[in-house]
Amino acid sequence: MKIRTILILGVIAIALALISLWMGQQSYSWFPPQASAEAQLIDQLFSFLVTLGTFIFLGVVGTLTYSVLFQQAGKYDTSDGPHIEGNVPLEIVWTAIPFVLVVSIAAYSYQIYDQMSILGPMEHIHGSMAIAAPLDASLATPIHPIEVRARQWVWEFYYPDQNITSTELHLPNNERARLTLASEDVLHGFYVPAFRVKQDIIPGRVIDFEFTPIREGRYRLRDSQYSGTYFAAMQTDVVVESADAYQQWLANTATQKPITAYNRAFTEYSKRNNSDRWKIVEPALPPVVNYSNSGIE
């Protein structure tokens, strides 16, 4: 291979690498704000995959484009191409490179998952294997567990230490949160896009789930599984607030008398015209809670 060709290929490779790195950095802006420590790790992994994918995509498409534009046969050339068969070094290279890439991605992904230490169903299957080093030693001890009850189509949160229930999840900022997830009917999914964490809630099982909020604000919790007709209405807010504000909310809520909460799915079902003859699962009754974000579900 001529030196000139090597230099050209080197310049092209550097250009592709720079473009790929730029795309990887841009990928951080494609997501909601990073509201949890786990979100930072997930975004790092995604940025790495975008960088790698961009380099491969541009390299493959660029090579094909060059071949189409500059390696065409003559207009009246009907002869066969040169007879080529077997190239052991090339076959080794194009087998080894994808193998190394796939193993590297798998290892990095597992490292991220292990570092997040979000528990989930692996704790029940593999025991201590699911418990890894926490993101920060200062965040190792989670706050008191919060019970998350999912049913068609409403979220309910129970704080056992204060004996209060709410349709809105409140969490202290910069403290490890531990949830116990349970479904009372079908498969649901706990998903907060700003946290980048998702956990299926499996009927008949109680699943421990941990993450660390790091940004105060109000974020949306959605049911990530198609749990029935009104699954899109199964949304509520997650409020991340300072430790003082969180304790104040707990104290204030504990003094509130239980009330029947607003349930969008139940309200829409009640207004339904039965003349259409479509059979629909009746939503669960609106929960009776100490605190309700009425009207915004």
Automatic annotation (TrEMBL):
It is an enzyme of class 7 (translocase). It is a multi-pass membrane protein. Its EC number is 7.1.1.9. GO terms for molecular function: copper ion binding; cytochrome-c oxidase activity; oxidoreductase activity. Its cofactor is Cu cation. The chain crosses the membrane at residues 6-24, 45-69, 92-113. Residues 23-120 form the Cytochrome oxidase subunit II transmembrane region profile domain. InterPro entries: CcO_II, CcO_II-like_C, Cupredoxin, Cyt_c_oxidase_su2_TM_dom, Cyt_c_oxidase_su2_TM_sf. The keyword Oxidoreductase applies. One of its GO terms (cellular component) is plasma membrane. Keywords: Copper, Electron transport, Membrane, Metal-binding, Oxidoreductase, Respiratory chain, Translocase, Transmembrane, Transmembrane helix, Transport. It catalyses: 4 Fe(II)-[cytochrome c] + O2 + 8 H(+)(in) = 4 Fe(III)-[cytochrome c] + 2 H2O + 4 H(+)(out). Subunits I and II form the functional core of the enzyme complex. Electrons originating in cytochrome c are transferred via heme a and Cu(A) to the binuclear center formed by heme a3 and Cu(B). Belongs to the cytochrome c oxidase subunit 2 family. This is Cytochrome c oxidase subunit 2. The lineage of its organism: Bacteria, Bacillati, Cyanobacteriota, Cyanophyceae, Oscillatoriophycideae.
